[in-house]
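job 3f2a | input accepted
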Amino acid sequence: MKHARITGVGHYVPERVVPNAELENYMDTTSEWIIERTGIEERRFVDYGRETNTYMSARASEMALKRAGLQATDIDCIVFATLSPDYYFPGNGVLLQRELGIASTHIPCIDLRAQCGGFIYALSVADQFIKSGMYRNILVACSEVQSNLMELSDRGRSMSVIFGDGAGSVVLQAHDQEGQGILSTHLHSDGTLAEELIMKNPGTLQEKRMTPEMLEDGSMLPYMNGNLVFKHAVVHFENVIREALEHNKLGVDDISLLIPHQANLRISKYIQGKLGLPDERVFNNIQKYGNTTAASIPIALSEAWEAGRVKEGDLLCFAAFGSGFVWGSTLVRF
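job 3f2a | predicted structure (334 res):
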């Protein structure tokens, strides 16, 4: 059986830096308040009309391909995860294919929605394709433009201080070596609490997708029951990490580096404490970028690789929790 190995990583973040102090101009908040509750010091917002979701994913993918030593034409499948696509339809997969100049290859482009769990879910799909022998070189791309989903106001404060824009990509390639690459992925969901982290409109539940009333009542803005999400996240994060370790007959001490979804620094630090991991074995960059949803783990992975914190033979653990609720983990031997 073939195994999937991550051979290239890449990321792109917008040029515009939005520090907490700038948000103080739009809402009743302070940088200290934001840092205390989220750990976020700044985030990136796109330059509209230039840095589109597709544009960012292409730049991240080009970096990943270069590091893998591949050309875009070597890719035989694209799996794209985002909750903020350029269009309602078609999905961003085909747009990335076109942006990379490989539309004529007619390779499949799969669009996937799992919110903050998007990277883990996309990685799992790509892993199964490679294990089955269906594809050999798969590009997994995650990109988010969330700055225009937020309302920079007192009403939108609880969400708008958290999220940012960015993209991350990885290249997966088939190989024969046992015990290398993706060891396992573990996916879960619970739809009973779907409305506790949600953006209701525009959707098809209502007869009209956009009305003045929706704008007035805020139902076109993202909503989060922060306390409830935190309580569930810290439980599921720890459980799904331990599930992956137990499945592979490994322990916490075997983890070289944990890269959790960058949802909230308080969540990451809580999980780190529960697992007993020292700072040098956990990677966080939410301080610089905020929560970039599906893109957060691949952005962090690419930065960790650049910083020399990912070496051959290292065991990396990725874990995520997000709207749905969905959560998952994976163990990867580099």
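job 3f2a | The two ends are 18 Å apart (CA to CA).
job 3f2a | closed
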